[in-house]
Design goal:
The complex is a heterodimer of chains A (490) and B (104). With 490 residues, chain A is mainly α. Helices cover 72% and strands 1% of the residues of chain A. In chain A, helix 3 runs parallel beside helix 13, helix 8 runs parallel beside helix 13 and helix 13 runs parallel beside helix 15. Classes of the chains: A mainly alpha (490), B alpha+beta (104). Chains A and B meet through strand 1, helix 3, helix 8, helix 13 and helix 16 of A and strand 1, helix 1, strand 4, strand 5 and helix 2 of B.
Chain lengths: 490, 104
Amino acid sequence: MSAAARTTAPHHKAPSLAGFSPHAPSVTLPLRFMVAGMLALFVGVSLLVLRPAMLATYHYNQYVIAATHLFVLGWICTIVMGAMYQLVPVALETKLYSEKLAAWQFAFHLVGFTGMVWMFWTWNMKQVGHFGSVLLVGVGLFVYNIARTLLRVPRWNVIATAVASALVWLSLAVSVGLTLAVGKCSYEAASGPASGGPLGVFLHGLKAIAAFTARFDQIGAMHAHAHLGVVGVFIMLIVGISYKLVPMFTLSDIQSSRRARASVTLLNAGLLGVFVAILLRHPLKFAFALLVVAGLACYGLEIVAILRARKRRSLDWGLKSFLTAISLLAPLSILALVLSWPGLPLTTLTGRLENVYGFLGLAGVVSFAIMGMFYKIIPFLVWYGSYSTQIGLRKVPSLADLYSPGLQAAGYWAYLAGLAATTIAILLGNAAAVTGACVLLALSLATLALNVAKILSHLVRPRIEPLAPRPTLADNLSAQPRPHPVPQGT
Amino acid sequence: MQTMQLDEPLVLETLRQVVDPEIHCNIVDLGLIYGTRIEGRKVTVKMTLTTPGCPMHESIAGGVKNALRSLEAVEEAEVEVVWDPPWNPSMMTDYGRARIGLRS
């Protein structure tokens, strides 16, 4: 049963990962989404620093809408999509349906959102519709790909329900957005020479949609569309994915599956009602907002319970960012209830509170959470690309060795200070204060950029060292009695 | 050059070279190794991971194979990842707990 072995330096046979169960897609796929998303974020924050008036005035204007779509589609959606291609197969223990479709989706997404943002800026709604259609094709590919992946899930659970719900809300959010764009175009060609044949039928269809959307209050429709995207897609995914990631990173478990399921169910039910109520400006909006808040309360209670039961004492800065972000759901919920109060007059203060609500939702909860997870996902992707085949053969760095925790901590505090300062500046409606506050956010992003560059440098120049000489058996056995956990005699 | 028998203590010591890059602790002291079987020059390791769907699944399983193959006496290394019983922190050694600052 035994053979002679020598504890010499390892003689390296070619490492191979063939035969393992690959859940995650190739590293380059999510990485390209991450890089594109970060670029969009830097453009977006630069825009805020250069045009602070955007956050200090009422948000229904072309520049705010362009900047919002840059943040939502360019930064958040791009990162979320890349992360989902990486995390959904991992979290649900299955394999991505098609990497090829994902690569195509990236191209459609990139062309779609950059064109949309540009055209919103110049307020060319016809072109917004065209680029939005390109984006819609990408979203269709994304939804199909993830839905087919979900069909492979061996054990359906609350995470799968949350991901499936987010896919439905994403499809609705993009469709409603495109419908709103259709509603803002004029259709002179429908009565011109092109009015016959299939093109004519199409144009008449668009004209009919435009007439239908004109029946709704445009600001209400825009708010309803925004809630589908932010609550239905981003918050829903944060809720679902954190039921996997928070226990995983803190060495804990879900404490109440019932409470976790309730959070997702209440979010779905509440959001459906909120969407219709906002669209119709119905006073039931408050009641449905309460349902959403109840879902978030269940989520918050479950996360607190998971953290209390955790075995890992210390939390790293990535996780701290994520947890700080989701704790901002509490003030955001209160603000949501205030703003959904029936008959709330639209004063200057209401307008500013709405700006704070949107800003805290996107920059506070969603972006801060993403930045926290960035420090989990990017190091993993780069580590996987540079070191995964060397593990056991050479000494490789840990994930935390790939970046500077000091810079990360500085970035955390700068971002938190930037969020607080920007919120106050928006409430005061002071453009100069918005600039100053956004500089803090930009500083935080600079620390993130430095750390990302540090992480990416491991792709170019991996830091691999020889393994330390193996200690002798006698040393190890006398120094540390290490019981064999569950000897089952394989 | 020291000569050793290919036995379970040597296999476990070799597997201590495989470190979970997220938790930063080797897989033996993490309590991930459930058993080993040595048949001539073939070693089979039965192990688990801290969570099903662990993103490091392939890397760690690959690392186990790499480490075992680095022993001249090992011709073939196999890894069997199981989820029953599920891993929990009580399976860690005292050294492992201290390494990652675990609550008792």
